[in-house]
Amino acid sequence: MKEPKRLKRMDNYRFHFRKLTSLFMFTLCGVSVLIALVPLILIFYRTVAFGFSAINWDFFTQMPKPVGESGGGLANAIVGTMILVGLGSCMSLPIGVMAGIYLAEYGNNWFGQSVRFLTDVLNGVPSIVTGVVAYTVVVLPMKHFSAYAGGVALGILMIPTITRTTEEILRTVPHSLREAALALGIPRWKTSLQIVLRTAMSGVVTGILLAVARAAGETAPLLFTALNNRFWNTSMNQPMASLTVFIYNYAVSPFDDWIAQAWAGTFVLMTLILLLSLTVRLATRNKFAGNLL
Amino acid sequence: MRDYPGTRQTFIEMDTIPENGKGIPVDHNKIVAENVSAFFGKVQAIKDIQISIPENSIVAIIGPSGCGKSTFLRSINRMHELIHGTRITGKILLDGEDVYSMDPVLIRKKIGMVFQKPNPFPTMSIFDNVAAGLRMGGTHDRKNIAEIVERSLQQAALWNEVKDSLSKSGVGLSGGQQQRLCIARALAVNPEVLLMDEPASALDPIATAKIEELLFELKKRYTIVIVTHNMQQAARVSDYTAFFYMGELIEYDVTKKIFTAPSMKQTEDYVTGRFG
Amino acid sequence: MINPGDLIFKNLTRFFAALILVLVVLMAYEMIRTSALSWNKFGFNFFIRSIWDPVQDEYGALPFIYGTLVSSLLSLIIAVPLSLGIAVFLTEVAPRWLERPVSFFVEMLAGIPSIVYGVWGFFVMVPWLRSTVEPFISKHLGFIPLFRGAPYGVGMLAAGFILSIMILPIIASISRDVLKAVPRSQTEAALALGSTRWQATRIALAYSRSGIFGAVILGLGRAIGETMAVTMVIGNRPTISASLFEPGYTMASVLANEFTEATSEMYISALVEIALTLFIITIIINSFARLLIWSVTSNERAQKA
Predict the structure, then answer these.
(1) Which of C1, C27, C72, C126 would best serve as a mutation to test chain A binding (most A beta carbons within 10 A)?
(2) Which CATH code fits A59-284?
């Protein structure tokens, strides 16, 4: 193919331009990764820097001091978060696990599809909306704020996570295992419970841990359900303190001491969630990579 | 025909193609492979291939599954480089120039490829599919592109069937039409060589026949290397045939000879169906 | 012979699955019921009025809708190109040993609670905006209405920034998965035509555009519902302004701030109506996104068959 020299030079320019463009664009992609990692590093750094220095033994053991006084801790908040998440789990665990079992074992019909769809819907509902629902369903009739309301709000949030991971992990149990059990004469329900579920138990537990991690970090749904409580309280019928709401209240306050405690709280929260996430990661090791969102 | 002493492989230096009596003169060897070996990590896929592809001819590469024919084909236009850890030793010369010393992007313009399963770009219309290679290469002149698209579709014997629906999506066509679309797309960038990796294996007999007819026309302009597991196809279509087995080139000769009087026993066993 | 245990178990699990159905319906019902008061009084005008007066019990949600939309759109504008860049990096550029840790770090961003983003945003990002970024923009681009005004730090721009960081991992992860699923034959076809690697990547991006679009929509859904981080950096003033430097208010933020103060029935009803609006919007957005992503994955299953 003989081409005039002029065209050959044009082709040459075009070729080099294309190659340069390719290099440039891929470099930009690398730059975006760096840009994305900057906030992550900064958040970690600041949380550790400010939070760690404000942590002391008091933080975990003392109660909040009255306004204006310095010192004190957030012992009630830490316990409160545990109680609230515990309440949420009581509500969401049975529903989530059982529904997950149903979807995995019997759920290939229109009913199962609609439940799956609605679980996804529930997953996408903003957490503040679940707080509003808990408000109208629990707070209004009771005429006061309570840990129950907070527990309900958190429970609603935890259900989709538990349901989805339970179903997915149960689906990965090989069919041959079920068939072997059935062939031995074990009834289907026993197979599902004792064989399939037991095999997948670690996966189910990691799903629950994920839901717990998410619930422990939530603030919005607690703002007007469990409210907050500066005093020691373990009664479910009363407003309940939580770490997240305390962090919020302290952070927007004008007191330096409180702000320092907000950072300390942030540090504790991040550590807790990090530990939970790492546990989950180690346990599942790429089984669910990418599906957890 | 020149035999390399001590090897079972042959080079072809012939002046004309004797088979179908068309007497098209062979200027030179378009592609020459010298001692080509390919490795996937530690595993050797092909070993010491020496072959020369004459210009304007159709060379078929046959052999049982896993014998390395696709690997060799892909090493010609450097498509094997897409997989991590592959390595080529030896030389592949296109018109005397080492393919591995040039930029792969440029090589792939000169050496086009058609794949086993038709793969038109689903988000583009028929017109845009054929023009894709041109546009990516930097051609933007509309009139020029339109002319080339029409010419390529005609060369691929698809023009009459799609000329009124050029803006429709490529995936709406039948399998055979999609493959001809892919051929047109490959031809649009004006390659010198066309590599075809089992182009008709996913198609029905009628579509296959259409494509084989096409090849006879195409070889007037292009040099074609076709990998096929279908021996009858190789016999119908090609001027020369190379028989690969377990990564080595066992025999390379004029097609008629390979299928009627092969020199090597393995070749004879394969073409008579004793193993596959 | 049907084992009675089987029947009980199946129906028991079915019952709990049905509870989810009941739950969602109940949520919708409760919110509709409580917001009926406000809906009956204001009707559709609720969404186009700007007045928010708890004393007179006059409510209009326009500033909040505006705030939600603008902050979310801004976050998309920032996050989408970055996310796509990350997705392309992870699938095309990064060697295997780099891809896993980077993916992990990006997904870690998704696990950080909203309040942590809020605290960091308020104490670190906002002062940075106030002292560095906004004065810079103001000096060079201050004539554009978009950047007019004093650099408070808090405001729409801050909200857009913090939201973009929060939705980045979702869009990036899903886009990465969608890009990975592009059949090899497509990129091979492009390269065989003599394209550069970037041009082949563009073909892959075009191929996966519905999946990527779904990922973006999911990110939008998350941004719309985000509460704490936004509340702490947006300024919480129900103003509608063209400038990104001005404070604003989102639907989620007004709920977070004012629910505890809501005393009158009408006040509560108006707030619940806003919550219901959020609920419906996120349902629509998420369903649409799931549909897109589901159609992409089922397509490739059909093609492989």
Answers:
(1) C27
(2) 1.10.3720.10
